[in-house]
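note to self — DONT lose this again. spent like an hour looking for the file last time. sequence + predicted structure for the chain T wanted, 468 res
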Amino acid sequence: MARLNIAGFETGDLTEFLSTSGTCSVNAVTKRTGGYSFRSNPTTTAVGWGRLATVAASGAATPFNLATIWHRFYFLCHTAPLPGLPEDPPPSEEICEIRDTAAAVKFCVRIDSNRHLVAYAADGTTLLAQGTTVLALDTWYRIEINCATGNPAAYEVLINGVSELSGTGNVGTANNGYIYLGKVTDRNGQTVDFYYDDWTADDAAYPGAGQIEVMQPDGNSAVYTGWTASAGDKYACVDEIPHNSDTDYIGSSTNAAAYTATLESAANAGISGTINCVKSIGVQRKTGVQTNSVKVRLRSSTTDSDTSGVSSTAYVFCAKVFAVNPADSQAWETTDLDGIEVGVVNGAAYAARCTMVCAMVDFRPPTNYSLSASAGVGAAAAVGRIRSVTRSAQAAVGTLAFAGRLRGVIRGAEAAVGAVASAERVRAVARSASAAIGLMAGVGVVLHRATGRVGNIINRAFGLEIKP
């Protein structure tokens, strides 16, 4: 299994998309993880979408060109299509389209006014399957799609890992090329408001649960320093999210000149658990008419891995995806991330500029935690801090709950404080949380969604240490 590409929309703009159209944006308010999500909110007959693909050796986007592909994205519906006449089928609008290498439709997924998912064939209008799960408004769901090639050929759609739509039908005879997120084609003139986060595509299997975070520059490499800052420190010229174009940048007119920036730690970026892939990113351009392919470099330990380069007078988004650590060809570990650098290499003796570098990481956080109270945390303080975290998490995530994992906190607190009275108090907190929320999820997951930084909130909020 290998990741083909990832996008958490953490660049803070639409540059991760190959193209966009209509009413869509990157949103910093409603997001599942990190700092941003993608929003499609067209009204009536309007559309709004973004197109994603894989990356070529050059670093530029290119079609997947695969007979079978597996996608994952997280989806939140804020405004669904409105009901129609009782005797008519429920009005529906698309939430995504799978298209082939020529950008012709292969497979469509819609949401109808009952908030059921519905699958349509390559013509966009032939119904393949009708779902039964009602998607709650303003709730994140993991949507995974498997699309083959042929007429007929297999398709499947999962909701939170459970098959919702599946079968065979006309899903096009040309290979998978792109995925379009949003209301791609107007089907019923409905106003919608959709959010997307943490997309990835895989060439072998469903990606499963996960999230994507960004690692930003925090210093200059001791090895590659060949570019010049427009003002101030070099790394400070390429660390803005979203990038600021020519406001500040690093530049070079020397062939093969290289610059890399050190990056913040995995812990600081909120990354833990199983690392699925790393994506090196650069936003750069040439400044003259001469051909000059600027490359993006990932440095891991002493191993350098470059794209072949893109030549453009406009700033372009370039990237390379690493399923394994190029330094040892083994699976990535969080300790590997703490040593990587990302930067650019000038491909000719002509002027070039770079305005942003960073790394995106797709990972699956630990799902099982044992929490132990710090030695200095007394019984009353432990209980009080748990209550505080309970209130903060409830306020931040609404109906998302964590009663089940809170019981793990109870056990850890009981062992740490050794007091029956304290245990009873904690149990009372758990019962209150459970009654108020009525659902079960992991404390670590909820806290991460609420704050984006599990380790920091645990340490700061109630002095507990997470151990996977």
